[in-house]
Amino acid sequence: MKTSVRIAGLSAPAITAALLTISGCSAGRDATWTTTALDKGSAASRAAQVAEIEHDPLAYLHTVARNCHELDQYTLTMTRQERRGLGLFYHLQPTEHVQCWFRRSPFSLRMKWLDTDLKYGETTYVAGQENDRVRFVPRWSILGLKPGIVRVDLDAAVRWGEAKYPLTDFGLERLIEQTFKFIGEAGADASIRYVGLETVSGTDRPAYYIRIDAPAANPPQPSQDLFIDPNNDLPLATRIYNAGGKLEAAYIYDNLDTNVQLSDDDFLLEAERDASAADRSASAARE
Q1: What is the mean pLDDT of the chain?
Q2: Residue 148 pLDDT level (bands cut at 50, 70, 90)
Q3: How confident is the model at residue 120 (pLDDT cuts 50, 70, 90)?
Q4: pTM of whole model > 0.90?
Q5: 33 Cβ contact partners less than 8 Å away, ≥ 6 residues apart
Q6: Hey, what domains does the chain have and what are their CATH numbers?
């Protein structure tokens, strides 16, 4: 029997505070992921875990949160689709495929778009660098000139309708934190239900599917589909729906690699690497 957990007996602020002590669709419907499966034990142990999740999905989300908090750095390929834009142009955008490099401290994120038909090229952000600004290179520029490096403040992409969230909201841990915040804002109306071990459409990867309904959340966000990889108990995908039941945002985290040693150079744009290499060559020639 599937269990739906309701959060009762606490005010919304109290729930939010408690959950946050644990310490980024339609694209998701047809996108794929591939990661190396990990042996997590026998079929019996897997069945026991499923029974525990079914009994108390919220407790399992705490486990997922702890696992996310332990990740200091990783790379992954993100598939995302977001409803964004300005005014009459606010709508569900095309699916994007993005290679990502993440480091916890200092917070660092580089993203490289793999879709050659999108205007985005590459962006990077390291907390405290460049006066805390984001650096990016568009794929095209006006008059056919070679695109240059552009520097903007952290919230510029959100203000322009080019992104739904700032770069600092990226990450597996941030996704779970936002999920807890969503639950807390709904208070006693929040419902957390383990649906089952399901495969996201278009993939062959089974995932623990947890459905969260919180119609009283502020701002309105009635539901979230959260998919957890049973091999590592980390988020694999999510879909977020708006008050009208339409897809608001969706993300898949593919090719997750936590066994990486990222350096400052990994958060340089390719254009910056090319310029540095050219400077070294010119210096060597002068010598």
Answers
A1: 81
A2: confident
A3: confident
A4: no
A5: 77, 79, 203, 205, 236, 237, 252, 253, 254, 255
A6: 4-276 (2.50.20.10)
Pick from 47, 62, 66: which is nearest to 210 by CA?
62
Estimate to the nearest angstrom the gap between the alpha carbon of 94 and the chain centroid.
17
pLDDT at 149 over 60: yes
- Once rounded to an integer, what is the mean pLDDT over residues 65-93? 94
Burial of residue 81, with CB atoms counted within 10 A of its CB: 0-12 exposed, 13-18 middle, 19 or more buried: buried
Tens of pLDDT, residues 250-280: 999 989 999 999 999 999 999 898 766 555 5
Alpha carbon distance 77, 158 (integer Å):
21
Q: What is the dihedral of CA 42, 54, 201, 26, to 10 degrees?
A: -140
Query: Secondary structure of 39-84 in the HEC alphabet?
Result: CCCCHHHHHHHHHHHHHCHHHHHHHHHHHHHCCCEEEEEEEEEEEE
Q: Which residues contact 207 (CB under 8 A, 6 or more apart)?
A: 197, 198, 199, 200, 227, 228, 229, 230, 236, 237
Rounded distance between C-alpha atoms, residue 11 and residue 163, angstroms: 32
Q: Which two tokens stand for residue 93?
A: 């955008």
Q: Which amino acid is at 258?
A: T
